[in-house]
From TrEMBL:
Keyword Transmembrane: no
Record note on quaternary structure: Homodimer.
Cofactor(s) required, per the database record: Mn(2+)
Protein name: Zn-dependent hydrolase
SUPFAM superfamilies, A to Z: Bacterial exopeptidase dimerisation domain, Zn-dependent exopeptidases
Amino acid sequence: MPSLIERLLPDYDEALDLDGFSGRRLASRLSAIAEIGLTAEDGSGRPGYSPAEKKAKDLVCDWMRDAGLAVRRDAAGNCFGRRAGRSDHLPVVLCGSHIDTVPNGGHFDGVLGVLLALETAEMWKATGFEPERPYEIVIFSEEEGSSFNVGCVGSSAIVGAPLIEQLGGVSDHNGRSFSSAVEQVGLSLADFPAARRDLSQIAAFVEVHIEQGLVLEGHGLPVGIVSGICGLVSLEMTVTGQAGHAGTTPMAYRRDALVAASRIVAAVSELPGQVSDTAVATVGQLNVSPNGSNVVPGRVRFSVDIRDVAAEPLERLVARIVETATRLASTAGVTLSWTRTFSQPPIAVDEKLKAQQAEAMRAVNLAAFELPSGAGHDAMVMGEHVPMAMFFVRSKDGISHNPREFSSLNDCATAAHALSRFLTRLVTNTD
């Protein structure tokens, strides 16, 4: 299969190479990161706090140093590249995303936001622009939460969320603890609180991300302004029955955890529509034990991802799912335990920043089109504490979390110019 750069460059309009932006540089960097954790299906496999994620972070840190940025890493593994401002005491404009992926994910999710933040610094360097206030690129750790069902870990550490108690008790499907995972990349969970920042020293947080949906494509638009981010609740449920021999345990005497779990899973898919037109719920991870072909399953652990754009129906749906799962488990003669592993309310984008985004879009001849985000991002964590804004970049066929995930280089370049205009205004404004 052709490399990512070979797929990006042929249709690229080099007229977009202006103001210090380089489409070839961006394509080359996207392709280089895609090679780290490349899967057999040509996807990306860089779980949070894995050696592959660290290797990708280290590579971007090298590029940030080459761009003249001061690079540092905090106690939670977040990486920063800082461009000093003429008034360097002013609160910083922070821009970036994550670089970890879901299992066999795509090559743009998160990564594009990091590299476009870096492109802005490259453009300023090429044109001799001097920011008035400091600017920092951030690579957040473990946004996806694909191994431990706890996402946005790095951004949560920055805002001072209480992580130690929550993360100290979680493990992946192989029984590996979160603590041991971070230790393999040279970190310690006990040190995570040191990553907390003085949030009064962050003027704004900006994130660019692929849309992961069909709205922009349906409207024929390369870039959009995010109007707000949906709320997200992640549950982990465990159904416990009784393991037994598949040949000698009569059907009437079975306490099959998988049969009970399957009824719950089916109910999860039916409940959102009973609560809200915008609500969704997904079981995306299932672990069966003992997982033998001739053994009645004795325990099933699974994730439940619940989202909505408004807080009240979101919490109502969570309660409905827990209530229904409890009832179905009781009817099947098995037990249910559950924990809320992550919770984030819906977050609105800062209205002043959104107006400035619209101006930046119009300045590069783009429609100031707004759309909500159905996916959670580090921006939702940051946006609870500091002014936040997001841009979306068109996703081909709306595909994401999949090796077929793709955004054209022309769309990425267009987003780079809109972002640069927006950030230039933010780092020039000293109010």
